[in-house]
Write a structure and sequence with these properties.
Layout lengths: L1 E6 L14 E6 L16 E5 L5 E5 L1 H7 L9 E3 L2 E6 L4 H13 L1 E4 L4 H11 L2 H15 L4 H10 L5 H18 L9 H9 L8 H14 L1 H4 L3 H5 L9 H5 L3 H4 L2 H15 L18 E8 L10 E6 L9 E5 L12 E5 L2 E5 L12 E5 L4 E5 L10 E4 L4 E10 L2 E12 L4 E5 L10 E5 L2 E5 L2 E2 L2 E2 L3 E5 L6 E3 L10 E5 L2 E5 L2 E3 L7 E3 L3 E5 L4 E5 L8 E9 L2 E8 L2 E8 L4 E9 L2 E9 L12
Parallel strand pairs: 1-2, 3-6
Antiparallel strand pairs: 2-7, 3-4, 5-6, 8-9, 8-35, 9-10, 11-12, 12-13, 13-14, 15-16, 16-17, 17-18, 19-20, 20-23, 21-22, 23-24, 25-26, 26-29, 27-28, 29-30, 31-32, 32-33, 33-34
Helix pairs in contact: 2-3, 3-4, 4-6, 6-8
């Protein structure tokens, strides 16, 4: 009995039943062009094999149309008509291909697969080679992993090992929960998967349980291999209760016990987690993306939490969208500011529903997709500048509003994650809000903002350890609500608002962009923002020499970018409405995430 797989250009099926003996693939695009001659006398004899002992009878019209190797230039006249010889392949390899030429389907027999792929490679039939790759991924590779990798290298299947481990990861959760055929999983497949960075929906504790079941199937033989496999389990991304449930048999390995104890300590101090780096702290399959965080435009923004991901390696103007549960934020997210340390996003301040400034701070874990409240700022504030160094967060200036009382701020604070504490540092000389800030080269830089009621062009610097802000050359235009990003020793200032001429207190979109050279201390204007982009929001993300930013065009928000090498703006994906912030995080998400604008 054969399992039937209907195949279009992309070959995708559920995880197979590996006990099947044959698999039938159907090419839906196949057209029988000469079906009228199928029952007529055959006029071409085909000899295959090194000794040319096996022969097939076919129709020249059918086969010549199927492949150029059956053309007149390759045939010769024999006693009974045209003949052709293929000594490089076997009859077992040619038989399924011969059937495909006539009927548009192919049977794959695992026992004869090597001969099939040799014949498919000889004829260079793309569809059959795709079938072979699919069969190796879904049916053959699990049982004969090393040999499959060898075949992939031999026949030029680039990236096959990564695809094989990725496919295994996609089905691992299903396998671990069921009665998987543990006898069939070779150590090298498990080892390659665990050492690599492949997405899986299986929680890490479930992967550990899978390995234990695998070992117990043949404990005498496999127990000696367990230490190397268990060393690649990411204990630091397990839940605390999972760590407490690890058996003493596993903990008897001293290296594993040490890692588990370290993971418990790591999980017990949430704020300090942002300071840890390394693959053992990351979700499997995590990759660097621009992350757009948003909430549905409803009366209760806290009840709808949406993330959209932009992969910089995908040039298509599309996003992967993931809808999460309630965020738990007390503040209106659109009024908060944000920055990153490590792979954690921090959102701070803003207003509550009554319009009162808040001091609350939340930490977003890209692994769990959840927000956790950490120590609040000393001063409640909104409309302030916020930035980060590799291990600190800074907030500068802003507005503090309580009931009918509103005051502008000059205070500056620094967050210390290992202490989960905010500390006051040198204040600005004058109060200001809606400015931009960045930390680089051991200094804090602040530009623009609103002083009194007007945007300003000032640029300031506070060196680490200094008790005084230094004035820098002013920007070419006054601006507020803009972005500032450091790259390659330069500060890139984009967008924001600038003053309307002869209209005190009124502003317009600023399309002038400029860079500040940290070495020469000079400002230089760069490409203007295209008018069609509308308003550029203040939050940005840098990936692969591009600054990603959000812009608002007639209430629709787009994720566009600026290429710092070519000095050009690039139009990107439509996201939707009610979106205000973008950042960069290492995120793991399923390849089947919905690709669509946000609602």
């Amino acid at each position: 009995m054969a399992a039937t797989v209907v195949v279009d250009k992309k070959l995708a099926v559920d995880f197979p039943d590996v006990t099947e003996t044959k698999f039938k693939y159907i090419d839906k695009s196949f057209v029988k062009k000469h079906e009228d001659v199928y029952n007529t006398k055959k006029d071409l004899k085909i000899f295959v094999g090194s000794a040319a002992k096996a022969s097939f009878l076919g129709h020249k019209a059918v086969l010549q149309d199927a492949h150029e190797f059956f053309g007149n230039s390759f045939c010769k006249e024999g006693e009974e008509g045209s003949e052709i010889y293929f000594k490089e392949i076997t009859a077992y390899g040619f038989t399924p291909i011969f059937e495909y030429f006539y009927h548009g389907y192919i049977y794959v027999d695992p026992e004869l697969f090597t001969e099939l792929i040799e014949a498919a490679s000889f004829f260079k039939i793309e569809w059959i080679l795709d079938v072979c790759r699919h069969f190796m991924l879904h049916f053959y590779g699990v049982i004969k992993y090393s040999y499959t990798i060898e075949l992939a290298e031999r026949f030029g299947f680039e990236g096959f090992k990564e695809e094989m481990c990725g496919t295994f990861g996609l089905f691992l959760a299903k396998l671990a929960k069921g009665d998987a055929p543990f006898k069939d999983y070779p150590e090298d497949l498990l080892s390659d998967f665990l050492q690599g960075n492949y997405y899986t929906e299986a929680p890490e504790f479930l992967i550990l349980q899978f390995l234990i079941k695998w070992m117990n199937y043949d404990k005498k033989e496999r127990e000696r291999k367990m230490l190397s496999l268990l060393s690649n389990i990411r204990y630091h991304i397990m839940k605390p209760e999972n760590l407490n449930n690890i058996s003493e048999d596993i903990l008897s390995m001293s290296d594993i016990r040490k890692e588990v104890e370290d993971a418990k300590l790591y999980l017990s101090n949430v704020p300090q987690q942002c300071l840890k780096k390394g693959i053992k702290y990351a979700s499997r399959g995590a990759k660097e993306v621009a992350i757009v965080s948003a909430f549905h435009d409803t009366s209760d923004r806290s009840e709808s939490n949406i993330l959209a991901y932009k992969d910089p390696n995908n040039d298509e103007p599309t996003l992967s969208v993931e809808e999460l549960g309630p965020s738990g934020l007390k503040a209106d997210y659109t009024t908060m500011n944000q920055a990153c340390i490590g792979n954690f996003l921090f959102a701070a301040g803003g207003y509550d529903k009554a319009g009162t400034s808040l001091s609350c701070v939340y930490m977003f874990d890209a692994r769990t997709k959840k927000w956790t409240e950490v120590a609040g700022m000393i001063q409640a504030r909104a409309s302030f500048a916020m930035c980060n160094s590799k291990d600190r967060i800074y907030v500068i200036g802003g507005v503090c509003k309580e009931a009918d009382d509103e005051k502008f701020l000059s205070t500056v604070e620094m967050y210390v994650p290992e202490e989960n504490k905010w500390k006051a540092i040198t204040s600005l000389e004058s109060s200001c809000f809606n400015q931009a800030a960045v930390y680089c080269s051991d200094a804090l830089y602040v530009t623009g903002g609103i002083f009194d009621v007007e945007p300003i062009a000032s640029a300031l610097c506070l060196q680490d350890g200094s008790s005084k802000w230094t004035m820098l050359p002013k920007m070419s235009v006054c601006r507020q609500g803009h972005s500032m990003t450091e790259f390659g020793g330069k500060l890139y200032v984009l967008g924001g608002y600038t003053a309307k001429p002869n209209s005190q207190g009124l502003v317009k979109d600023c399309d002038v962009n400029e860079i500040f050279n940290l070495k020469t201390k000079q400002w230089t204007t760069i490409t203007r923002t295209p008018k069609r982009y509308g308003h550029l929001y203040r939050h940005t993300a840098i990936m692969q020499n591009k600054i990603y930013f959000l812009c608002n065009i007639d209430s629709d928000v787009y994720l566009n970018s600026f290429d710092m090498e070519s000095n050009e703006f690039i139009t990107g994906a439509l996201i939707g409405r009610g979106v205000h912030k973008v950042g960069v995080l290492q995120v793991a998400y399923p390849p089947t995430c919905l690709i669509t604008p946000l609602p």
